[in-house]
Amino acid sequence: MAGKTLIKNIKNVRLHSSTIDNKEMLHFKKFVDQWWDEFGELKPLHAMNKIRLPWIRESLVTCNKMEDPSLPLKGYTILDVGCGGGILSEPLAKVGANVTGLDANVDLINSAKVHANLHKVNVNYVASSVEDHVQDNFEKYDAVIASEVIEHVTNKQEFLKACVQCLKPKGSIFLTTINKTWQANLATISLAENVINAIPKGTHQYEKFATPHELQRILEEYNCRTEVVHGTMYNFLTNTWHWWFNPSITYAMRAVKLDK
Amino acid sequence: MTSLKHICKQAFIKPNNKHFFLKRNIASTTLNENYSNNYDIIIAGGGIVGCSLACTLGKNNKLSNKRILLIESSKNTPFTLPEKYSNRVVSLNPGTKKLLTDIDAWRHIESARFGIVKRLQVTDALSDASICFGEETSSENVSYIIENNLLIYAVKKELERLKNVEVLYEEKIKEYHLPDAAESHVNLHLENGGQYSCDLLIGCDGLNSRVREAMGVQYLNWNYNNVGIVATLKFSEEINNCIAWQRFLPTGPLALLPLTSSMSSLVWATTKEHAQQLLGMSNEQFVDALNEALWKVYQRSNIIDRTLKAFDTLLRASNIPADLHRRYPPKIDSIDGRARFPLGFGHATNYIGKGVALVGDAAHRIHPLAGQGVNLGFGDISCLNKVLSDAIYAGSSLGNVSFLRDYESERQKYNVGMMAVVEGMYRLYRTDFTPIVLLRSLGLQATDVFYPIKKMMVNQASL
After folding, report:
1. What is the enclosing helix (H) or strand (E) of B342?
2. What are the DSSP E strand ranges found in chain A?
3. What is the DSSP string of B420-460?
């Protein structure tokens, strides 16, 4: 989710945090009021739930192990890093998961709390960076998700290290992001931001994009085996996401933390 | 709380009322402090489709922690199976039977009564062309003929066992407030002053749907200048009654649907004037008119007869004869319970909106000539049930448009196709213009011998 790793103002800035970019924070602060408008500026993120939630659910749980069919993720603890207004955290909680939503932006976390209260969804929202969060939450989660976040993170190495540290052994880390290719640059910045305005201007910087191999290499360093890399595709005309064979524009990946 | 007062009043003033128990249930839940008038799903309209939808959703284990409310304006009249057959029947295809079996309602029908169609024979009064689907000796059935009131009783019997579905009888909805971009709930005001809200409102309120009106969607519709006449028919002797007969007369199609070995149900679509005449007749006169309609040899064009004969010879020469044993419809002896109903066409351009969906006749209405109307409604039910499961499984709200749109596009694709075929048939058989009659007869004859196409048609109509 765009905007997750942002800080609101000097009071809240984790001065030692190397993963958070102040400019990003200012950009995403603009969306505090619009976060939950299904057809607003962030509609691609809402639409993405339709593929990423079933993906996460099916990766974590198989039908025959399910205790309660109406709450398939019951008993799973999940950390949603860079949760923003909670577009992914709330549905995860609704399917039974015990979700912690993490975002450095206090404004966003506050608006996420208000929304969750209003809709009677139980999500534990925390305004913090993932490096701080791991201090008290080492190896606590069954799954860590950073969806549409890593393309806004400056220091990917530190960021992924902290994410993996939050994960229990055998737990899964889920990432969705933008590839560092000319096709991605053309599609997500030149076209989506500047021509068809499907994404607000200034959301992405090409330098911060990462290829699946880069992320895979970092994850390997922290004892994670990449299980899946799969391309995704956004159709801005119908506002729908699809799985696509080609990961050259946007992709989703899942890695498993190995036992020591 | 007005609704609480109202419900209690109803319950205590009319303790002899048959639906006393249901009312009491709701009243006692009202007293529970957790109770609120906020439901996950509210279904407006408790007809065949509304009740079946409530039952299907109520039995879906992915929706087991959702609260569902069905609001019906009529009384909940108790049902005991009368000896006399009702003249209002529906033809259910195998897909619909499967859905009813899945929700356990079929066993109540099975233990009561229903007719089986193993073969459907369609003929044209203006030529010798005919087409048939299915075989009398086959183990597969083409469709099942069930009385409307028995069907709804069977579904209600299962519905009453569900804890997560509540039913309000004799309540009319006065106003619908559908959510705009910022809101997430649908609000309903009842005529008695009660207020309810829900995440998803489903309109099963029939062809004059008020939910559809509140959605403000475009509704393409027209009335046929035709009416349908229904009656229960008795034969002079017992026969192996498993063939549904349909004859296209110049005034409209006539169909006999098997009920028992000596009884069938009649559905006869004809012009308004002719219907007026038919309904004014004595029973004996009506039987005569009916037998004439079934057997009368209309004046035919020589060209059509000759061409068809030549075509038949050609088919025989190619070793693909059409029909070796031609069957003839039974002779009608007496009738019972005539009634009429209007016929029309209608289709809503949108089935869904934020927090709202239309199901069954509220979304589409077709000519009964193919017996598909209620089956389309049941198709809607199983599709919506699947889509809502997906939405729940993705942690989405039930009123989420991106999921509801899946329901809309899947059902419109199917329904519009079926409606176009039925409408096309209706128009094709409305005329007695010789070239058209010739073409349709050749087409029918050719389709009859072309097995793959026939198989495809049966499969499409069985979904």
Report:
1. strand B332-348
2. 77-81, 98-103, 124-127, 141-147, 167-178, 224-235, 240-244, 250-257
3. HHHHHHHHHTS---HHHHHHHHHHHHHHHH-HHHHHHHHHH
Task: Give B462's pLDDT tier (boundaries 50, 70, 90).
Answer: confident
The distance of B182 to chain A (nearest Cα, Å) reads 7
Q: Give the three-class secondary structure for A147.
A: strand
ipTM of the complex: 0.82
Superfamily classification of domain B17-461: FAD/NAD(P)-binding domain (3.50.50.60)
Alpha-carbon span B386 to B46, nearest angstrom: 21
- Residue B320, chain A, CB below 8 Å: the answer is no
Query: How do the domains of chain A map onto residue ranges?
Result: 2-257
Q: What is the pLDDT of residues A16-55, one digit of tens each?
A: 566 777 777 777 776 667 788 878 888 899 999 999 999 9
Q: Is the pTM of this model over 0.80?
A: yes
- Residue-level pLDDT at B234: 93
Q: How far is CA B342 from CA B223, B366, B368, in A?
A: 8, 11, 11
List all residues 6 or more positions away from B19 whose beta carbon is below 8 Å from its beta carbon.
B75, B76, B169, B170
- Rounded CA-CA distance B3/B370 in Å is 44
B31-34 long-range Cβ contacts below 8 angstroms, 24+ apart: B31/B4
Domain residue spans of chain B: 17-461
Q: Which amino acid is at B205?
A: D
Q: pLDDT by residue (tens digit) across B320-365?
A: 766 656 678 888 999 988 999 989 999 999 999 999 999 999 999 9
Q: B395 vs A93: CB contact, 8 Å cut-off?
A: yes
In chain B, residues with a C-beta closer than 8 Å to the C-beta of A39 are 181
Q: Which fold has domain A2-257?
A: Rossmann fold (3.40.50)
